[in-house]
Write a structure and sequence with these properties.
Elements: E1 2-5, H1 6-22, H2 26-38, H3 42-61, E2 71-79, E3 82-85, H4 89-103, E4 128-134, E5 139-146, H5 148-151, E6 155-159, H6 164-179, E7 187-195, H7 197-208, H8 219-234, E8 248-258, E9 263-270, E10 277-280
Parallel strand pairs: 1-3, 2-4, 7-8
Antiparallel strand pairs: 2-5, 5-10, 6-9, 7-9
Helix pairs in contact: 1-4, 2-3
Bound molecules: iron/sulfur cluster.
Length: 281
């Protein structure tokens, strides 16, 4: 049994919060450059140039890419041979979030009660934590701060099998159009297909924080990713919603088995600040 201390987890999460909020990932930076080269609208091209400049300044000064440093979504993969020592896993992660957002001067955007009090929790906790137990003795973690300009534009629909691919495309386009300029395009769009209602939402989130360099390992779904990207870019929403051919830089699709009577579809939209930082212990 391999032991991992809570102290190490907290330290890692703290650093990942700061990195995710201040450093645009290499794949996303390259996607901005590619989008700038292909953009037909002069205003869109100019905006993409500014996003590149913004990314350069943020990295150099270690300042946030965007003022909305989001609610932290954390994906953890823990090997079944791992024993966490010195406290609880979720407490260790939340301590890391609190330290990262405080020491990194990142905006705290979480309210403890969603409906009545809506008082800021003061340290951006709690995070939304998804834990998966896997084989082995590894420990992998992904911290993905999520702004709500884009999060608010997600859609989940419980389609039926007869709706098929056309039904999936209809829900996808509905979400892209609903998002319009408010989700701060160019977007990375996560599409979850299958599972149950809650599984489908998690699939979409996983897809939204997957690298823009990646593609679904199943060629059919990889092709669907390309078709959906084309559909998004035909809407003409463009960079920052001011028109152009780069409404999205990538569509990622994640799938899971589902019931004979169902075809759940969820669209989770990520803005141009498609932040995520990965670490392992
Ligand atoms: S949607 Fe994204 S880019 Fe827009 S304000 Fe929120 S975090 Fe920032």
């Amino acid at each position: 049994m391999r032991e991992i201390s809570c102290e190490k987890i907290t330290e890692l999460v703290k650093n990942l919060c700061i990195e995710a909020c201040c450093v645009v990932t290499k794949d996303m930076y390259e996607a901005f450059q590619k989008a700038k080269d292909s953009e037909k609208s002069p205003l869109g091209k100019d905006i993409l140039g500014k996003l590149i400049e913004n990314a350069d300044i943020a990295k150099k000064e270690m300042m946030p890419i965007c003022q909305d440093t989001g609610m932290s979504v954390v994906f953890v993969e823990i090997g079944q041979e791992v024993h966490i020592v010195g406290g609880g896993l979720e407490d260790a992660i939340n301590k890391g979030i609190a330290e990262g957002y405080t020491q990194g001067y990142l905006r705290k955007s979480v309210v403890s009660d969603p409906l009545y009090d809506r008082v800021n929790s003061g340290d951006n906790t709690p995070a939304v934590i998804h834990t998966q137990i896997v084989e082995g003795d590894g420990f992998k973690i992904k911290v993905a701060p999520k702004g709500f300009g884009s999060e608010n534009k997600g859609i989940l629909k419980m389609l039926v099998p007869a709706d098929g691919i056309e039904g999936v495309k209809k829900v996808f386009l509905e979400a892209v159009k609903y998002a319009g300029p408010n989700a701060c395009p160019p977007l990375v769009i996560g599409v979850g297909i299958g599972g149950t209602m809650e599984k489908c939402a998690i699939l979409a989130k996983k897809a939204a924080v997957r690298s823009v360099d990646s593609k679904n390992p199943n060629p059919k779904y990889a092709k669907l990713e390309e078709e959906l990207l084309e559909l998004a870019n035909k809407t003409g929403v463009g960079p920052q919603g001011l028109g152009g051919v780069n409404t999205a830089v990538k569509v990622n699709v994640e799938v899971y088995a589902t019931h004979i009577a169902g075809l759940p579809v969820c669209i989770n939209i990520n803005c141009h600040a498609a932040r995520h930082a990965d670490g392992e212990l």
